[in-house]
């Protein structure tokens, strides 16, 4: 049976060398044409076996890797959003992945996100530890294998590289993966290979390709088998308008054969549609689908794995990341298969939770997976721009639970009507084109909200304090009584209840003033004029009296069990005094256990 090329995805942090790696393998200069070396468009490139043999030389023969595959099909991903877009039933479209990590910088937030996505989709991967040429003292030997160039380095340089590798091994271990430098791996089924490389000089690239070919041959043979003349299966990369062609879809075909005039079944925003292929456009060998400067070639058919541009009617509303199937006779059966695949992505939702919106099915799935790993409940998850209805839905949740009354939007627009509704309702919107930024921002926001809530809760607990009525400074006898007071300890706030050392209620703090300025609170050592509601001078208090802030029994228990460490020495002393006062009337005050 025929074997197709394995589909390989390259993931990692921006500027860690994804494009440069593919550029070296192709032998072109595409990476230099991009601003900052950051990949900006999605594309795919087939690397024929002849090119791989040229780069790898005798390594393939040494490891007994036979020429059973036509080559490798690389998907170049901007960040790793394309990886999540490119999905099929049961996981990611990519058969293998390369996780790029700068050996000097190590793991970055996007690296962790990429690793989590690989976990979610259960994709086999290798780690390319890039930029070894940037290690201080490294002597470059362009195009050599890693083992050859490593032997030529000074001992201290080898040590620096090994330290970098062991740091990666440690991080991967913490994330649940056993790993080792590729030439020290004892069990390829259980350990992740780390291949040190320089995408700039080509050092180590031969081992990287060899490891990919070896893993594919050893573990992916069955899933790479092609049935002769089988109808094509693929995934939609992008829907876009091309000058002179109209609306087209870019797709990656991962199984079977796709022919001009085939009837294909696709998913639109509203339903499942069927349409007939008018033209198939394929890039020339070693050229990217995304390179608009190059002309596409018209072809009559393509065999998996391949990146292809399809011209067909009625495809304007096709969803990126959705499945593509060829129907040869059994239209209803294929439609049902498509519906089943879409159903398999349906996300379990909660009554109370956040609203999640994304641009493609795969990115929606990845974002929801990460939120669920953070124990964030999901009320609704859908593709498409943020609408007014989404905001209304989130505002309903916000009224019941502010923490979840939010919208988390990945790589999409906010419709004008939605923006207006956000202003009216105050719903919190998180919008970004990097998944980890969304999850990080939401986590920070909820942590800050929880901290504010905790502070409000602590502020609502009445803490110990006592005051002294300053002699000869009673300004008004009643309704309300006004007197000069000094705070002997703690902090007194407006609306606190004051009691005498006998436990008798004096009245409520109505207001406090210092030189004509109103004060919401007054602390130890300060003197203010205090208005005490319901208090009568000569009846409830006298000059020189010491009055205590009354603390409810429930607040005392919280102070004693949860906030005691936050009380000052004078507050602790006053609390002891208050307990004695309270227990004169009720010897079980503060001791009762609530069930």
Automatic annotation (TrEMBL):
InterPro entries: EFTU-type (IPR029459), P-loop_NTPase (IPR027417), Small_GTP-bd (IPR005225), T_Tr_GTP-bd_dom (IPR000795), TF_aIF-2_arc (IPR004544), TIF_IF2 (IPR015760), TIF_IF2_dom3 (IPR023115), TIF_IF2_dom3_sf (IPR036925). The keyword Protein biosynthesis applies. GO terms for cellular component: cytoplasm. GO terms for molecular function: GTP binding; GTPase activity; translation initiation factor activity. Residues 3-220 form the Tr-type G domain. Keywords: GTP-binding, Initiation factor, Nucleotide-binding, Protein biosynthesis. Gene3D superfamilies: P-loop containing nucleotide triphosphate hydrolases (3.40.50.300), Translation factors (2.40.30.10), Translation initiation factor IF- 2, domain 3 (3.40.50.10050). GTP binds at residues 12-19, 76-80, 130-133. Pfam families: GTP_EFTU, GTP_EFTU_D4, IF-2. The keyword Acyltransferase does not apply. NCBIfam families: aIF-2 (TIGR00491), PRK04004.1 (NF003078), PRK14845.1 (NF011418), small_GTP (TIGR00231). Belongs to the TRAFAC class translation factor GTPase superfamily. Classic translation factor GTPase family. IF-2 subfamily. Function in general translation initiation by promoting the binding of the formylmethionine-tRNA to ribosomes. Seems to function along with eIF-2. This is Probable translation initiation factor IF-2. It comes from Methanobacterium spitsbergense.
């Amino acid at each position: 049976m025929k074997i197709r090329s394995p589909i390989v995805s390259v993931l990692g942090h921006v500027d860690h060398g994804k494009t440069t790696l593919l550029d070296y393998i192709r032998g072109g200069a595409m990476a230099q044409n991009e601003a900052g070396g950051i990949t900006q468009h999605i594309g795919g490139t087939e690397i024929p076996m002849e090119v791989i043999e040229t780069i790898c030389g005798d390594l393939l023969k040494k490891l007994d890797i036979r020429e059973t595959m036509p080559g490798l099909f690389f998907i170049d991903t901007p960040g790793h959003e394309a990886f999540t877009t490119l999905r099929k039933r049961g996981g990611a479209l990519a058969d293998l992945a390369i996780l790029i990590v700068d050996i000097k910088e190590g793991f970055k937030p996007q690296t962790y996100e990429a690793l989590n996505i690989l976990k979610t989709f259960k994709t086999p991967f290798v780690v390319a530890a890039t930029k070894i040429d940037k290690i201080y003292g490294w002597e470059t030997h362009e195009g050599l294998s890693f083992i050859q160039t490593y032997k030529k380095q000074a001992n201290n340089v080898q040590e620096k590289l090994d330290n970098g590798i062991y740091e990666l091994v440690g991080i991967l271990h913490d994330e649940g993966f056993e790993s080792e430098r590729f030439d020290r791996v004892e069990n390829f089924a259980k350990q992740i290979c780390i291949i040190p490389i320089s995408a700039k000089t080509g050092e180590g690239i031969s081992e990287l390709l060899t490891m990919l070919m070896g893993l594919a041959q050893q573990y992916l043979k069955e899933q790479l088998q092609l049935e002769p003349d089988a109808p094509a299966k693929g995934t939609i990369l992008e829907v876009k308008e091309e000058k002179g062609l109209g609306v087209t879809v870019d797709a990656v075909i991962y199984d079977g054969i796709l022919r001009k005039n085939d009837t294909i079944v696709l998913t639109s925003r509203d339903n499942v549609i069927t349409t007939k292929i008018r033209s198939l456009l394929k890039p020339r060998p070693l050229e990217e689908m995304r390179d608009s400067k190059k002309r596409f070639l018209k072809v009559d058919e393509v065999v998996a794995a391949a990146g292809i541009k399809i011209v067909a009617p009625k495809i304007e509303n096709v969803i990126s990341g959705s499945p593509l199937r060829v129907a040869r006779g059994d239209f209803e059966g294929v439609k049902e298969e498509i519906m089943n695949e879409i159903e398999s992505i349906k996300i379990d939702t909660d009554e109370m939770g956040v609203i999640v919106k994304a641009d493609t099915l795969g990115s929606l799935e990845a974002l929801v997976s990460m939120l669920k790993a953070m124990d964030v409940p999901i009320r609704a998850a859908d593709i498409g721009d943020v609408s007014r209805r989404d905001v209304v839905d989130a505002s309903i949740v916000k009224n019941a639970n502010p923490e979840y009354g939010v919208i988390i939007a990945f790589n999409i627009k906010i419709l004008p009507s939605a923006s207006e509704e956000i202003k009216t309702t105050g719903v919190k919107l998180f919008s970004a084109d990097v998944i980890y930024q969304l999850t990080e921002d939401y986590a920070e926001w909820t942590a800050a909200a929880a901290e504010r809530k905790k502070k409000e809760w602590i502020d609502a607990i009445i803490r110990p304090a006592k005051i002294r009525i300053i002699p000869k400074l009673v300004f008004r006898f009643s309704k309300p009584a006004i007197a000069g007071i000094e705070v002997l300890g703690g902090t007194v706030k407006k609306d606190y209840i004051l009691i005498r050392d006998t436990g008798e209620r004096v009245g409520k703090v109505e207001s406090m003033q210092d030189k004509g300025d109103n004060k919401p609170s007054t602390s130890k050592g300060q003197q203010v004029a205090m208005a005490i509601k319901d208090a009568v001078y000569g009846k409830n208090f006298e000059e020189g009296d010491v009055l205590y802030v009354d603390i409810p029994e429930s607040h005392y228990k919280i102070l004693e069990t949860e906030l005691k460490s936050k009380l000052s020495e004078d507050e602790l002393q006053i609390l002891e005094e208050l307990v004695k006062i309270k227990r004169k009337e009720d010897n079980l005050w503060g001791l009762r256990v609530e069930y």
